[in-house]
Write the structure tokens for this entry.
Amino acid sequence: MFNAITQSQIYVLDQTEARDFYVGKLGLEVAADIDMGFMRWLTVSVPGHPERQILLEKPGPPAMSEETAEQVRELVSRGAMGGWLIFTTDDCHKTYKKLLERGVEFTEEPTERPYGIDCGLRDPFGNRIRFTQPTA
Amino acid sequence: MNHAVEDTNRRMLRVRDAMDREYARALDVPALARLAHASPAHFARTFRATFGETPHRYLQRRRVERAMFLLRETGTSVTDICFEVGFTSPGTFSRTFHDIVGRSPRTYRREASAASVPTCFTMAWTRPCA
């Protein structure tokens, strides 16, 4: 049966801006950035973990019509697309401070939870991202 | 692609996030409109077109959702909860709570605290969404 998740996907509205954000601000690494002709295959991963990649996919033809892509873009920008990511960190407060200085838009400050300390942010397009410092 | 619509959606989402975060503050339409860089009338209209309800109603639902949590999980008095979630009058709080939940805060507390539903499940179902 299954033994790992290797690829996940999230819709972004602009892949260059997405790369700047996910790599330049959040500190992920580019795992692949390849022009396939019909699409740009852009994946990122947590540093040191290339075995688990996130595809930053731009909705559009030929995978979907312009009309459908427009609906997807609208849902993403309204925060209703449903795609989201949760990362872990060794120090939630420190990471929060660093990302705040880089201009990341937070939706929630670090908060104590039964499972650890976590907080929430949005990417430039409206997707939800959280990161957690799990309880030791 | 209609980038203007996406930009507008994103700005409205930013304001909705602010309401989620700062629900207990005295937020009114002019203050929220400033966050959206729009006039109050334009902001209220656009928010409704984007999420299907007025900013005022969204804020009420967010506050009531927090009140439901506090009623379930704490022993804080109904009056204290009313002020803690951002209402300024117990009468308005009770009326709004009943309108949204269908029960009074006290009845809700009695009935909901009897059930042991996992908190992650109730959070997902009570958080207002649009």
Q: What stands out?
A: Residues 3-56 of chain B form one domain. Residues 2 and 8 of chain B are 10 Å apart (CA to CA). Chain B touches chain A through 19 residues (CB under 8 Å). Chain B has a mean pLDDT of 89.
